[in-house]
Amino acid sequence: MTSLVTGIAGIAQVQIGNLVGPTSVLTSVSQVDPIKTYFIVSEQDFLEFHRRFPTEASVEAARRQLPLQLILTDGSVYEHTGSISFADREVNPATGAIRIAGVFPNPNNLLRPGGYGRIRVAVKTQPGALLVPQRAVTELQGAHQVAVVGDDGKVSIRPVTVGDRVGKLWIVTEGLKPGERVVVDGLQKVKDGAAVKAMPAPDEAAPAGG
Q1: Phi, psi (5° rounding) for residue 56?
Q2: In sequence order, which residues have a C-beta less than 8 Å from that of residue 185 and are 6 or more positions away?
Q3: 139 pLDDT exceeds 60?
Q4: Mean pLDDT computed over 139-160
Q5: What are the beta bridge partners of residue 83?
Q6: Annotated domain spans of the chain
Q7: Which fold has domain 125-210?
Q8: 11-47 pLDDT, tens digit each
C-alpha cells in the first residue's frame, strides 16, 4: 500500500493475517512538514488589521509577510517562523473571535498533530514608543495619570494619554518624556510635591520606568 500524502504514520490498526477490505483503515498518516497551527484573534483585532489595507489582495500579501512565532509548552520559542495561511469564514458569535490558520516548517518532525502552543505576532510596529509599567499608571474618572519624580526628588502628579498595552507595559503617547522617572510602587502614599528617595524598580527598570 502506498500513502497518498507524505507524513508520519500512526500505529497500525490491523496486523498481518487480518482480513481487510476496500474500506478498512490500516493506519492514519498526518502531513507534518509543513504543519498547520490554529489560533484565534478577537474580532476587534481582525477588523483593525483589515482596515489598514485597501484591497483583499493587499491584506493577503500583508498576512504572508507577518512572521509568526510559536511558543512551545516548555516555554521555548520554536526555531522556525511561520506565516498566516488563511482566516476562517466566520466569527464565532459565542466568543467574538475568528480562527486563523498558520503554517510552520517542521523538518525534524518535532511538532506533532494535537500539540499545544501559543502564537506570538507583531501586527503593528510603533517606532520610538514610550513604555511604562502598567502599575505605574492610575485611572481617575476616566483619565490616566502617573507620578513623576523630578531631579530634585519631588513628585509631580501628571496626566498622561495612554495607547496600547504591550505585555506588562503601557504605551504613553502624551504627557511624559523619555528618561523621566515614574513611581511604580507606593502610589497610594505619594502626593503632589512630596519628596521621595527614588530607586530602580526590579524587573521593570526599562524605557521610562523608575
Answers
A1: -65, -35
A2: 135, 201
A3: yes
A4: 88
A5: 103
A6: 8-15+28-120, 125-210
A7: 2.40.420
A8: 787 788 777 777 777 777 777 889 999 999 999 888 8
Asked if residue 166 has pLDDT above 90, the reply is: no
**Alpha helices in 66-151, H assignment, sequence order:** none
How far, CA to CA in Å, does 151 sit from each of 24, 115, 175, 180, 202?
79, 52, 17, 9, 21
| Interaxial angle between packed helices 43-50 and 56-65, expressed in degrees from 0 to 180 and rounded to the nearest 10 | 110
Strands 181-182 and 143-149: antiparallel
- The dihedral through the CA atoms of 136, 165, 93, 37 has a sign that is negative
Q: Within 10 A of 202 (CB to CB), how many other CB atoms are there?
A: 8
Task: Quote the CA–CA distance of 184 and 165 in Å, as a whole number.
Answer: 16
Measured at the alpha carbon of residue 72, what is the angle toward residues 60 and 101, in degrees to the nearest 5? 25
The DSSP symbol for 119 reads: E
Instruction: Find out whether 131 and 172 touch, Cβ atoms under 8 Å.
Output: yes
CATH 2.60.40.3390 fits 8-15+28-120, yes or no: no
Query: What does the alpha-carbon distance between residue 91 and residue 73 come to, in Å, rounded to a whole number?
Result: 27
| Dihedrals phi, psi of 197, to nearest 5 degrees | -105, 100
Q: Are 103 and 34 in contact (CB under 8 A)?
A: yes
Same fold, 8-15+28-120 and 125-210: no
- Cis before residue 67, ω within 30 degrees of 0? no
CB of 171 closer than 8 Å to CB of 126: yes
